[in-house]
Amino acid sequence: MRISFSASLDYGSHGREYARGDDLADVSRAELRWYYFLGSLRISQSGTEVGPPWGWVPLFDAIYSVRQVMTYVEGGGGLGKIDFTENDEVIRFELEGGDLRVMPSYTKSALSCAVGEFLAAGSGFIRREIVKVVSEYPSLLNNAHVHALAKDVDLELPQP
User: Fold this and answer.
1) Neighbours of 90 (CB within 10 A)
2) Rounded Cα distance, 110 and 44, in Å
3) Number of neighbours of residue 31 by Cβ within 10 angstroms
4) What is the pLDDT of residues 131-156, one digit of tens each?
5) Which of 90, 125, 102, 86 is nearest to 45 (CA)?
6) Which end of the chain is less enclosed by CB atoms within 10 A, N or C?
7) Is residue 104 part of a domain?
8) Is residue 123 part of a domain?
């Protein structure tokens, strides 16, 4: 399984980071999650793509949502779904023994993978995207919410 994110050519300039620039140290968790770094979330396996077909998903909402599903898969209190605040669409995740079934509401395509494969893909996604975004916006290294997310996936970020 592969989970990835790419900046949106059509909607990226609507993210609040364009108005604010690299001054993101004090952005709240809610603001970071819903208003910054818009792009496309991709979830695929063996050539089958089940990520949403729109390009205005905020990066940190994708990160928090994938982390929430990882918690669910690990038997914690997370939700077994990713929902999108801008519409009623959802990606459902259902445990089937040692496998995870991934079913979006907006397409008939579905995926199935081992739980461990999803956990590795989710962790790798979060690590890659945090490293990428803090390299582009170094002030995020001073944001406590970014450090908390990194810590959740055992990613060591430089301390401010």
Assistant:
1) 15
2) 10
3) 16
4) 999 999 999 999 999 999 999 889 99
5) 102
6) C
7) no
8) yes
